Amino acid sequence: MTPSMITLLVIAGIVLLIAIGYINHVVENNKLEKARLKVEFNDRIRRCSEVNETFPGQMMSPGLKLLLTRLELNATQRLLLLNKSSVPLKARVAELEALVAKGDSIPVNNPPRPILTEAKAKDARFLLETLHGQVTRAAKDRGLASNEAKQWLKEIRHLLVILHIEFFNNLGQLALQQNQPGQARLAFERGAQYLRKQPDALYSSQLKAFEAQLARANAILQNNLEPSTQEVNELTEGLRTDEIEGDWKKKAIYD
What is the rounded CA–CA span in Å between residue 86 and residue 25? Predict the structure, then answer.
């Protein structure tokens, strides 16, 4: 074997080792990417399902229910491509496809969840933030058309305002029922301030309603501060009695 042949064999061996290393690297990267995608799609499915099932019924519409179902379907289909033999995934895809096929007739079974506490308001806001993230991600992945995504992002902002309106109104009405006009005034004032910060006049009627409730709470507070006629008479009579007793004591001392 000549020296040139030995050199060629050595070079071939090095090239082969490099090729094997590169192939192993590609295979390993593919495995890692597949695992990452599985985690991502499972997370998106979980988030869509959570919003779909727990969003307050008074703010859930057939259109929103349909959107959430479509987003979950898209993520489930992509997960199925990574695990084509999964029977549960196939069944879930079929179930979601049947719901999407109903269009605006899709059933909306979310029970109403009145926003009566700050904790409930925060929970609902978190669900809206989750929905915002899912719509943005779907638009980036082309699971939603850009125009449709923009419309839904606008709708989500509207729902956030509706959430605040319900929260401050419920808080104020509850305070009035509990004879706490001071707390009611604070709630209605916060609601009015929030609506004044909105960029358009879309919520002018709700703002007027808050201002009317605020005036009502102020009137109740003013009423509570003004002593009644009976209280004034009792106070005057008490003062007169003190004056008479004082005069009598002075007279007794000087006599």
Answer: 27
The sign of the CA dihedral 84, 88, 92, 98 is positive
Residue 227: predicted pLDDT: 57
In a domain, 245, yes or no: no
Q: Report pTM.
A: 0.78
pLDDT digits (tens, 9 = 90+) for 78-100: 999 999 999 999 999 999 999 99
Could you list the residue range(s) of the whole structural domain that residue 186 is in? 114-227
Q: How far separated are the first and last CA of the chain, in Å rounded?
A: 150
Closest CA to 217 of 189, 195, 185: 185
118 and 80 fall within a common domain? no
Number of Cβ atoms within 10 Å of the Cβ of 107: 9
Same structural domain, 26 and 93 = yes
| Residue 251 scores a pLDDT above 70 | no
